[in-house]
Every structure is written in structure tokens, then in C-alpha cells.
Write a structure and sequence with these properties.
28% of the residues lie in helices and 21% in strands. The chain is α+β, with helices and mostly antiparallel strands. It has a nine-stranded mixed sheet with strand order 20-19-21-22-16-23-24-25-26, sandwiched between helices. Strands 8-10-9-11-12-13 form a six-stranded mixed sheet. Strand 23 and strand 24 form a beta hairpin. The radius of gyration is 45 Å and the shape is elongated.
Length: 785
């Protein structure tokens, strides 16, 4: 039943907002804001009002701009009776209904043809009392502002059957261009929300409920002429799919109610609403359909397609009512363990193996001018081409790069040096804010992007939120969710504080990220690039493991390359030692290869190699660009030094017998190194073949003696300056002072320091991401608990 309001004058008086005529009628501001229909809004002397087209009081007040909500007293019985009474001249006598039917059958060619095309015969017209009447329609071209058009009337009996309401379908055959500007397809002025029945047996077992009157007429006629005529009642509501008549009218639906509403969203919602009202006595069925069924397919379409026999089957398969549980938003997200295991993939989808997963948000951080944008650009190229990134394969796909700092010219120069080709699926945005995320997600879905780079975080965030604020997590969480939904990798480029390789042992590298810890916490993983003048170290954490990599920025191609696992910085080594370290590992190399590995300028490198050749430590083979530099064997020179400096027991011979084991260090002189297989002594070369150790040695010239004496003094210094190691591998130690003073650590390796009595000790605590190296005098042993 329509709700009536007896409004208190001090709270809301509709008469202050709407102008009523002498009959207390006015256009409804909600359903007729332009005043093109008949006046459907009625008001009483005490301020109570009602719209006879079904608008609620709150809808009317919202249309007037009143947003207040009040609990108001119920209307008086007199007011309810006056408002509930039908509008004058709405009910039509049976004689007028009969005359309208005869006129339809004998005079109205357009209406009769339209009904026939819908499958409604003359017998059905006469049985259901369909007729032709006039309907008033708004027309601003007329002086009276309205005109009259012919309409097909559906006669709906009142409660006692003595009179009829007429629901009018206005000139459906009229072309759109001929219709007046106030045209409305239906006119149901003054018709209450009730039940309209088209087939009513004495004792039905079910009521089939349709969405509208035409469907009810078609289905009622089909049931009436079938074997179901004594078992099935056919009805519909006069108020449409979205509304339900008052409960006293619902008693006209006899037996079990089966709802056959249209196959569209309004029909689905309307059927659910009816079932919620009728509960256990209501079932929702699906209208039988075929392959040609379009959105909005209804009962009339099904009968016209010859599918009426399938209605019985559809009614038997109808969905029964189930008591709805509380509206708990977590229920739809609750997943059992078995379901989770069934839907979870059996593999990890990597964008770059061991570094970046394919559906998460990651953070790339480095200090200013460290090359983080070049690292992101190297990654973008690898993904776009399906190539490799830092020695690892990358999944191929489109890339969206949000570049908020670098210019087009600078980006073009970098692409040319990196060797980008035409047609690569990389797309650029030079402006973006996180408030535009929904539009970005649309582009990600359209392009099928696998990688989205945000360069940088400081440029895309809302300026009202500080990087140091915990609100950063709320800002970045939607970005993380987008990556999960679209199964793409997001890379946030950000800044760190000033972090260098030579100080990285004193701090946690991930603590150097600028701003709130919420930034790192929201991201799935973090990449931090630390650098000094000659070395680059990339620390990676991603939830599956941690990587500590030594990388190199190629000055010629501006691409980052992987050198290997981090073995420690060479900050204390001279240029000569760095070249020797590299040649010790590879044996021989060309000038370009040495320059790339040591990060030395070629001009300086050329001078270093010349000095090493003069010292007989390196041999040059070949000329110009084809020249190869070969590392000479140090052990052969050391053997020569030992022979020349030892006493000869045979005074008659210039030869001495050389035993290979004479040059093996004794147990007390052994150097303890890390047990890791990929860590090597920088100056340790492959053993000298045995035939070299047994050759006769001839006296050397002065230059040879100087070289021998140099290596002999070095060997002597190393053997005498270092005593027994102060700690053993696996021993528990702690720093004496500093940030980590007193923290238990395990000794991983220990090595002597050249020309010194000190030892270099590599340690690691359980909570550290990477190992750290300290002089032995800064450490102290801890007693095992």
C-alpha cells in the first residue's frame, strides 16, 4: 500500500514548494518535472500528499531539494480514505468497455492490425475486453498544450467487478517523427497497484506470474486452450516489474507462485523482489528461449516462437526461495582451503625470473643520478622484446611507461644507444596522477600490458599526502590491486637517502628508502641500487628470496648488465690490482672487455696495461684492436725466487731439485676463505703444471733479479705479517661498537690483509639481508649459550 504522510507544518510543507490548483492537484516534481502529464499529485488541507503514479514521499522531497529525514506521524483515517479514493472519472462502466471493444473490432484498422501482428486474435480481443479509446497527450505546439491520440485500452476490473480501469497503450503504430513532444507510450492514470488475472480456474495449484499485461494475455489464452486450464492461474501486476501491490492484493495469487519475468536486468531484480515478498510460496523460473533470444526476451516472444510446451518444464525447474543470510560483505570473499588449492596455479608467474613476479607492485629505489631510470628503461626494453634482463629471461608483452621527468629528446637518445627498434610495444605517458588510476587500468586492459613503470613516485602521488605519511599505503593499495586484477607488474621508481657501497655494511640498505615505511610495506618487493665511483650493487627482495648482485652500467649502450653475485667492493684496490683481478679470473681479454669489466676509461686502462707489461705481469699478443692481453703465471716467478734464494747442497752443480710440495703453505700458514663456491681469491691463479716445477733454471739478468726480489719480499711479508686467525668460520662474534654493537653474528669467512697484521672478517647476523666485512680488531668473540 502506498505510504501516506501527514507532514508537520514546522518540518516540511509541500505547499511551500509546489503550486496546487483549486482542486488541490499539481504536477508531481519527481515523475513529471516538465509538467507534460496530467496532475497526479494531490494534497489535503493538513499537508498530507500523494502521487497517484506511485512516487514515494521521499522521492518527491528529493526532487524538490529537501534532503532532511524525519519520522512523521501516520495519517488519520479520514486522510487515508480521502487519498486512497480513486480519481474521479477513472472507473469506466461495462457498457463503455463493450462499446470500445466493438469500435476496435469494427472501426480501428491500425489498432487491430497491431494486435494481430502480436498474435492477439479477435476472439482474444473480445474475451479480454480490449478496446479503442482516446488518450490525452502533451503537445506544446497546440494552444491548449495537449492533443488526443487513439489508444488500445486494457480493461482491468475493480474489486467487485462492477466497473473497470483502463490502462492505455497510446498509438503504438505511430511513427516516432509523428508523435507529439509530450508523447508517453503508456497512460495508467489513477490505476492502483493490483493483480490483473487473465486465466482463473476454480482450484489452481499454481499461479504463473508474468511481467506485463500483454504477456499475461498471451500466456492466459495459451493455458486456457491447453490441458493446464484447470491447474494454472495466469496473472500479472499492474504496477510493472519493479513494484509490488499491497499484501492484501497478493492474496489473489493462489497456490504456488511461479514468476516468469523478462530475461533482462529489470526482470531479474523484479522477480527477486517478488520472491522476497512471497518467500516460500514463490519460485523464480526462466522464460523458455532459443538461440535467437535477445536481451529482454519475454513470455510473448516464447509463445510466438512455439515454446509454450516448455513452460511446464521451466516451472518444475524453477528456483525455490531460500532464506537470505545477513548481508555480510566478507561472505562473498570467503574461500575454503580446498577451493583455494584448486584455483591456485602450480607455478609462479615471473615477469623476470627470480626478480619480478607478473602480478605485483615493486619498488625500485636509488639515490639521485644513480641510474635508476636507465635500469627501468633496460627492463622495459627486455619485456617489450622478450629479451633478457640482468641475465634472466623476461616475459614478452606491452609496456606502459609513465615518464614524468625526462624529456622526449633525452628518452630518444637513450633508446638509440640501447638499440631500440621500430614497432616495439612500448607506450608513453608524460603526465599522470594516482587519482586517474581507473583510466590507466582501462588502458592496461586494452593493451594487455605486462609492465607499467611509474617514474617517479614523487611526481604521481597526491601533493596533499607526504611521503613520510602512513597514508601512503592507502594511496598505493589501489595500485597494487590493479596489478593483481590485470596480472601486470607495476614498478615504482623512487629515491633513497645517500647510500654508498663503502658504508652499506653499517646500515640496512632497505632502510635507506626515502619516506614512510608504508611505501615498502605496500609493495611486494624492493630493488635498491647502491653505487660508488666504480662499483654498483643491486639488492633485491621479493618474498621468494633475496639477491645480492654486482651490476655494471655500460657507458656505450647505457644498459645495465649483470657481472655476477656480489663478492665485495674494490674500493681500496688500485687500477693495476683491478685489472689483475679481472685477468686472474678470465686469463686473457681484449681492451674493450677489460674496460667494461673494470669500469676504467680506455685511455687510463691503456697506460695501466703498459706498466703491467713492463713489470712482466701481463703479455700483449697481437696488434691494435685485435690485441689480447694475457696474464702471466705468478707461481712460475715465485718458484724462480725460491730457487735463487735457497742454499745449494751440491757445490759442484748449478742445479737444485725442486719438489712441488715445497711451495705449499704449511697448516699454520693456510688462509681461511669463504666456503662459497662462487667466491675466489682475487690473486689466486690456476696451479702451475708439474713440468715447469722440474725444469732447470738459468741465472737471470738484473731486471729478472729485481722482479724476483719484489715477489720474494711480498711473499715473505705475507708469510710473516699475519699470525694465526683470531676467529674460526662458524664462530659467534659481535661488533664492539656502532649500530650493531653486541649483535650476535656468525663468521662466514676470514682473510689476511696484505702488508698488515690485521684480518678481514666477513660476518652475518640472522636478520641481515646481506653479509658485512669488518677488520678483526672491531670484533670480539661471544660465548656460545
Amino acid at each position: 500500500m502506498q505510504t501516506y504522510l501527514d507532514l508537520q507544518m514546522e518540518t516540511f510543507d509541500i505547499r511551500k514548494h509546489v503550486e496546487f490548483n483549486q482542486q488541490r492537484k499539481a504536477q508531481c516534481p519527481h515523475c513529471d518535472p516538465e509538467g507534460r502529464r496530467r496532475k497526479s499529485l494531490s494534497v489535503l488541507e493538513n499537508g498530507a500528499y500523494k502521487c497517484f503514479r506511485g512516487c514515494t514521499p521521499q522521492q518527491i522531497r528529493d526532487a524538490l531539494g529537501d534532503t532532511s529525514r524525519h519520522t512523521l506521524p501516520a495519517p488519520t483515517a479520514e486522510a487515508r480514505a480521502e487519498l486512497a479514493a480513486p480519481v474521479a472519472n477513472v472507473l469506466v462502466s461495462p457498457q463503455k468497455v463493450k462499446a470500445a471493444t466493438e469500435k476496435l473490432l469494427t472501426q480501428s484498422t491500425h489498432a487491430l492490425r497491431w494486435l494481430t501482428d502480436r498474435g492477439i486474435s479477435a476472439a482474444m480481443i473480445e474475451h479480454y475486453r480490449l478496446g479503442v479509446v482516446r488518450a490525452r497527450v502533451g503537445d506544446t505546439t497546440k494552444a491548449s498544450k495537449y492533443t488526443h491520440l487513439p489508444a488500445i485500452a486494457i480493461s482491468i476490473p475493480n474489486v467487485d467487478g462492477t466497473a473497470f480501469y483502463q490502462k492505455k497503450r497510446i498509438a503504438p503504430w505511430m511513427p516516432d517523427g509523428d508523435r507529439p513532444d509530450g508523447y508517453q507510450a503508456w497512460s495508467q492514470y489513477g490505476i492502483p497497484a493490483t493483480v490483473y488475472t487473465t486465466h482463473k480456474p476454480d482450484t489452481p495449484t499454481q499461479t504463473w506470474l508474468c511481467e506485463g499485461e500483454w504477456d499475461a494475455i498471451m500466456l492466459g489464452w495459451a493455458v486456457r486452450n491447453s490441458e493446464l486450464k484447470n491447474d494454472i492461474q495466469v496473472s500479472c501486476f499492474t504496477c510493472g516489474a519493479g513494484n509490488i501491490p499491497p499484501s492484501e492484493h497478493l492474496e489473489q495469487l493462489r497456490g504456488e507462485v511461479v514468476v516468469f519475468y523478462d530475461l533482462d536486468e529489470p526482470g531479474r531484480k523484479g522477480a527477486t523482489k517478488v520472491q522476497a515478498e512471497l518467500k516460500k510460496r514463490c519460485k523464480v523460473a526462466t522464460v523458455p528461449s532459443n538461440d535467437q533470444a535477445a536481451n529482454g526476451w519475454d513470455v510473448s516472444n516464447a509463445i510466438a516462437a512455439g515454446l509454450f510446451p516448455q513452460f511446464t518444464t521451466a516451472a518444475a525447474a524453477a528456483e525455490t526461495w531460500a532464506e537470505r543470510k545477513s548481508d555480510n560483505p566478507l561472505r562473498s570473499r570467503l574461500v575454503s582451503n580446498d577451493d583455494m588449492l584448486a584455483k591456485a596455479p602450480d607455478y609462479t608467474d615471473w615477469l623476470v625470473d627470480d626478480i619480478l613476479t607478473a602480478d605485483e607492485l615493486f619498488l625500485l629505489a636509488a639515490s639521485p643520478r644513480a641510474g635508476k631510470s636507465l635500469l627501468a628503461l633496460t627492463l622495459a626494453k627486455a619485456v617489450a622484446t622478450g629479451g633478457r634482463f640482468l641475465g634472466r629471461p623476461a616475459s614478452q608483452g606491452a609496456v606502459i611507461y609513465i615518464r614524468c621527468e625526462d624529456s622526449d629528446t633525452k628518452t630518444k637518445e637513450r633508446e638509440m644507444k640501447q638499440g631500440w627498434e621500430q614497432g616495439m610495444p612500448v607506450y608513453w605517458l608524460d603526465k599522470f596522477k594516482l587519482t586517474e588510476l581507473e583510466y590507466l587500468e582501462e588502458l592496461v586492459e586494452e593493451l594487455g600490458a605486462r609492465l607499467v613503470v611509474f617514474d617517479t613516485l614523487s611526481r604521481i602521488r597526491d601533493s596533499s599526502i607526504s611521503e613520510s605519511s602512513a597514508e601512503m599505503s592507502q594511496l598505493l593499495e589501489p595500485l597494487q590491486e590493479m596489478c593483481k586484477r590485470q596480472r601486470c607488474t607495476g614498478l615504482l621508481v623512487h629515491h633513497t637517502g645517500k647510500v654508498q657501497i663503502n658504508t652499506i655494511g653499517d646500515v640496512d640498505v632497505f632502510d635507506t628508502i626515502r619516506g614512510s615505511s608504508a611505501i615498502r610495506a605496500t609493495c611486494r618487493g624492493t630493488l635498491v641500487l647502491a653505487a660508488d665511483e666504480r662499483n654498483y650493487r643491486l639488492c633485491v627482495e621479493n618474498g621468494w628470496g633475496k639477491l645480492d648482485l654486482q651490476v655494471l652500467l655500460d657507458a656505450n649502450t647505457l644498459e645495465w648488465r649483470l657481472l655476477g653475485n656480489w663478492l665485495g667492493p674494490d674500493v681500496d684496490l688500485s687500477q693495476k690490482d683491478r685489472v689483475l683481478n679481472y685477468l686472474n679470473q678470465v686469463g686473457s681479454a681484449q681492451l674493450n672487455q677489460i674496460a667494461e669489466a673494470t669500469n676504467l676509461p680506455k685511455r687510463s686502462l691503456y697506460e695501466v696495461l703498459k706498466r703491467l707489461q713492463c713489470d712482466d705481469l701481463v703479455e700483449k699478443r697481437g696488434d691494435r684492436q685485435a690485441a689480447v692481453y694475457v696474464r702471466k703465471s705468478i707461481q712460475q716467478i715465485q718458484q724462480l725466487n725460491s730457487v735463487l734464494n735457497c742454499s745449494n747442497p751440491d757445490t759442484d752443480s748449478d742445479r737444485v731439485s725442486i719438489q712441488q710440495n715445497n711451495f705449499s703453505p704449511s697448516s699454520s700458514e693456510k688462509v681461511i676463505i669463504s666456503p662459497k663456491g662462487d667466491q675466489k681469491n682475487d690473486h689466486l691463479l690456476p696451479p702451475t703444471p708439474g713440468d715447469l716445477l722440474n725444469k732447470s733454471l738459468e741465472p737471470s739478468d738484473d731486471k729478472g733479479f729485481r722482479i724476483q726480489q719484489q715477489f720474494n719480499s711480498n711473499s715473505t711479508s705475507n708469510s710473516t705479517s699475519n699470525s694465526t686467525p683470531p676467529f674460526s668460520i662458524g664462530e659467534t662474534v659481535a661488533l664492539k661498537a656502532g649500530q650493531f654493537a653486541g649483535k650476535p653474528c656468525r663468521v662466514e669467512s676470514i682473510e689476511p690483509v696484505d702488508d698488515s697484521t690485521e684480518w678481514s672478517v666477513t660476518i652475518r647476523a640472522r636478520t641481515w639481508v646481506m653479509s658485512r666485512t669488518y677488520p678483526d680488531h672491531k670484533l670480539e668473540a661471544l660465548m656460545e649459550s
